[in-house]
Amino acid sequence: MKEMIEKKELYFARGAREVWLCKDSGEMIFFDNHGEIAGSGILEEIPVILDIAI
């Protein structure tokens, strides 16, 4: 997860409007170029917790 958090800056540098990360627990974390946000402003229907079956 740490590596992905560091990579999000690279995505924003290439023009990404948002970065979405999924923790092992299924919890989604959303970022815009200002920092962490409560949810996606692009795809409002995306859940904040995913049911991950491993």
From TrEMBL:
Top-rank taxon, per record: Bacteria
Protein name: Restriction endonuclease
Organism: Candidatus Kentrum sp. FW
